[in-house]
Amino acid sequence: MAEYDLNELQKIHENKDVLNYLEQQGILEIKKFNDVYDYEKELYGLQVKLLELQYEIIEKGKRVLIIFEGRDAAGKGGTIGRVAQYLNPKKVRIVALPKPTDEEAGQWYFQRYIKQLPNAGEIVIFDRSWYNRAVVEPVFGFCTKEQHELFMSQVPEFEKQLIDDGIIVIKLFLSISKEEQAERLKERQEDILKRWKIGTLDQQAQEKWDIYTDYIENLFKQTGSKKSPWFEIVKDNKKKARLAAFKVIINALVGTEQEQVDSFIKKHD
């Protein structure tokens, strides 16, 4: 058990003195503590603001669709979890559709996603979406070149129809560096509590990095528009990326100009 100087402890009267003493004892690193404190404080404020906006969405019967896409291991799941954490669970749905069934594979590509669109007063969050056909499917050969090209030609008009009908569509793409992705994938392999996150495709994310990049750039170019822009969050720091995602969502819901939200948020329209 650690031994402490009672005389020193008796001199402590303010919170800052407690922190300084703990740092002197090697128990705490002040900078790390302050970083975590500042993050949690800002996160809480953004969660409160989003909850307030949800009240308005419910009251006015608005329909909100938030699409999360991104590189493998970019932090989509953790960000979505924080976004939905304190929202009214009866009026928010997280949708992560599995591989299409044989029946769904024979349908119009958008058909199974249409069933998941938000009802009045509801927020729906897509953890990956129809944009699988824009990047993941062509990278791994899960669709033909013709199917990919057809999708890319149809999706702008499809989203325009959703927006014209009153659905608020917010599209976020989380980007990380190749080096950071390698570190996170390695961590998943080594941490038994995170190993479940590893999919068969994740293991090829590094070797197919450049192919992914080409399709991602084409995604922004062909499917971003003034009505339905992409907001790309380019940050290796998970906490800062989460805060940025909150700001994009909140600003979209209140109709605030987005370009100046954060320096590492890129708008593609």
Automatic annotation (TrEMBL):
Report the domain of life of the source organism: Bacteria
Enzyme class at the top of the EC tree:
transferase
The GO terms this record gives for MF are: polyphosphate kinase activity
User: E.C. number, please?
Assistant: 2.7.4.-
Residues in Polyphosphate kinase-2-related domain copies: 37-258
Q: Which UniProt keywords apply?
A: Kinase, Transferase
The cross-references to InterPro entries, in alphabetical order and at most eight, read: P-loop_NTPase, Polyphosphate_phosphotransfera, PPK2-related, PPK2_PA0141
Q: Where are the transmembrane segments?
A: none
Question: What SUPFAM superfamilies does its record include?
Answer: P-loop containing nucleoside triphosphate hydrolases (SSF52540)
What's one Pfam family here? PPK2
Does Nucleotidyltransferase appear among the keywords?
no
Q: Family per UniProt?
A: Belongs to the polyphosphate kinase 2 (PPK2) family. Class I subfamily.
User: NCBIfam families, from UniProt?
Assistant: PPK2_P_aer (TIGR03707)
Complex formation = Homotetramer.
PANTHER family, alphabetically?
Answer: ADP-POLYPHOSPHATE PHOSPHOTRANSFERASE, POLYPHOSPHATE:AMP PHOSPHOTRANSFERASE-RELATED
User: Per its database record, what is this protein's job?
Assistant: Uses inorganic polyphosphate (polyP) as a donor to convert GDP to GTP or ADP to ATP.
Question: What name is this protein filed under?
Answer: ADP/GDP-polyphosphate phosphotransferase
Task: Please report the organism this UniProt entry assigns to the protein.
Answer: Sphingobacterium zeae
Lineage per the UniProt record? Bacteria, Pseudomonadati, Bacteroidota, Sphingobacteriia, Sphingobacteriales
